[in-house]
């Protein structure tokens, strides 16, 4: 192939873009470091790794850049073992990253400007493609460690080196793609996932057995007449739970030069309860609201379903309605027989998200949910972790005074912990904080200095070794 420069290559994004500087600035170094400095003490019996993914453009982006949609994936790993800590990070090397590394600059643009590179620049195979974005989450299941994208196939990672091994479809269960937020049922070991697609039937769900084989190939979810964007899902022992909020892909609008996504509150939000045994989908209507993330869901003895999630007024960044957009931790009581949903706020905290529970309790009742939010002294960053006791409607918080990311529950031998990575917006140093699950408001029992800055990112997981 003769390499040419595309005269239509989009212009570089302004380097002072808010999401390309400070705690968001991409990290271009890849490193491995051992015996990291620790303040406090790492429990000697804690053995495992905290892994986290996030958008991290390999080269200065061109065309468009929307945080947190755009950017290449970078997986960060903090390993705790024998009271000591080590760190590694690697780019998720998609074909786009590999070709850009050959050329030394960005070739693909962001999701929203509509540019795709021609064959004269990237060859026939990659011509017309958009950038793969396995930068949202990292999941281990059925012997596979995967960097997850949204509505696309994940990339398989070498669990030892974090090297990228290629795309993965989980024995066909992710043949048409997957949400970045599949749910693993701790009771059965099954991984359940959904995927949205732009053509009918618009939504599918699949199941991967504990051993990594496909138990249910992509199966149509009946009841939709338009393509919708859905970011996360919930799972109970009986149901796959999808909240279908009215954010619609509008292909006609894109062809006319408009926006790809359209917020249509008149449609309301519809809840799909998909019986895991394969029965008919139950649809329940609610007023319009938006959900990025679920904490957990479970079945009750009377047949109702409880879902804890963070509810937003609308999807900020994708819909401008002129009214303030705020979020809160909610509990939905859904009656599949009566077709009703009753939503109640379980915390007065606003502007929170990234809800997590002890993953061992997925599909079953839980007492604690952790979220990330702003503190009362608003610095403009998410700088506080909130720990909600949903049984007692009480909450405590801890704020390191730095930009902090998603808290992950870490089961220990004697006691359990929460872990999170934060970056100081002043000196741009990143640290891993280990808090006890019992008294997280007391602050970290161990603070680990990371060898390089970890950009503000998205989701992760604790993997015991
Ligand atoms: Fe997410």
Automatic annotation (TrEMBL):
Keywords: Dioxygenase, Iron, Membrane, Metal-binding, Oxidoreductase, Transmembrane, Transmembrane helix. One of its GO terms (biological process) is carotene catabolic process. Its cofactor is Fe(2+). The chain crosses the membrane at residues 239-263. It holds the Pfam family RPE65. InterPro entries: Carotenoid_Oase (IPR004294). The keyword Nuclease does not apply. Binds 1 Fe(2+) ion per subunit. GO terms for molecular function: carotenoid dioxygenase activity; metal ion binding. Its EC number is 1.13.11.-. Fe cation binds at residues 181, 231, 293, 459. Belongs to the carotenoid oxygenase family. This is Dioxygenase. It comes from Williamsia limnetica. The lineage of its organism: Bacteria, Bacillati, Actinomycetota, Actinomycetes, Mycobacteriales.
């Amino acid at each position: 192939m003769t390499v040419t420069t595309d005269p239509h290559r989009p212009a570089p994004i302004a380097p002072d873009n808010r999401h390309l500087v400070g705690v968001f600035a991409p990290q271009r170094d890849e490193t491995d470091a051992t015996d990291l400095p620790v303040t406090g003490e790492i429990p000697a019996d804690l053995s495992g790794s905290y892994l986290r993914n996030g958008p991290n453009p390999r080269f200065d982006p061109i065309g468009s850049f929307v945080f947190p949609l755009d950017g290449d994936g970078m997986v960060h790993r903090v390993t705790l073992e024998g009271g000591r800590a080590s760190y590694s990070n690697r780019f998720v090397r998609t074909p786009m990253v590999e070709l850009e590394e050959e050329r030394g600059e960005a070739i693909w643009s962001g999701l929203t400007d509509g540019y795709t590179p021609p064959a004269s620049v990237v060859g026939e195979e990659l011509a017309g493609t958009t950038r793969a974005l396995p930068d949202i989450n990292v999941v281990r299941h059925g012997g596979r460690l995967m960097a997850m994208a949204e509505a696309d196939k994940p990339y398989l990672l070498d669990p030892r080196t974090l090297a990228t091994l290629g795309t993965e479809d989980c024995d066909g269960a992710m043949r048409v793609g997957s949400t970045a937020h599949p749910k693993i049922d701790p009771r059965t070991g099954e991984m359940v996932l959904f995927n949205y697609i732009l053509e009918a039937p618009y939504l599918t769900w699949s199941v991967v057995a504990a051993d990594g084989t496909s138990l249910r190939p992509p199966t149509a979810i009946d009841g939709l007449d338009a393509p919708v964007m859905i970011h996360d899902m919930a799972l109970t022992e009986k149901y796959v739970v999808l909240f279908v909020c009215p954010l619609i892909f509008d292909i006609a609008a894109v062809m006319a030069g408009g926006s790809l996504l359209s917020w249509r509150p008149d449609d309301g939000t519809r809840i799909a309860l998909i019986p895991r045994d394969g029965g008919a989908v139950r649809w329940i209507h609610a007023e319009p609201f938006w959900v990025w993330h679920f904490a957990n869901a479970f079945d009750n003895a009377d047949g109702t379903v409880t879902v804890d999630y963070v509810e937003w007024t609308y999807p900020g960044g994708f819909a401008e309605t002129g009214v303030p957009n705020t979020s809160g931790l909610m509990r939905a009581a859904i009656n599949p027989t009566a077709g009703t949903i009753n939503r109640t706020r379980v915390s007065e905290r606003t502007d929170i998200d990234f809800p997590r529970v002890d993953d061992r309790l997925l599909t079953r009742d839980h007492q604690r949910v952790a979220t990330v939010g702003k503190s009362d002294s608003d610095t403009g960053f998410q700088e506080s972790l909130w720990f909600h006791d949903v049984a007692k409607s009480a909450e405590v918080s801890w704020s390191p005074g730095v930009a902090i990311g998603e808290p992950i529950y870490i089961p220990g031998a004697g006691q359990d912990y929460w872990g999170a990575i934060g970056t100081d917006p002043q000196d741009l140093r990143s640290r891993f904080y280990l808090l006890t699950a019992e008294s997280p408001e007391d602050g970290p029992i161990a603070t680990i200095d990371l060898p390089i800055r970890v950009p503000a990112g998205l989701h992760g997981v604790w993997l015991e070794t």
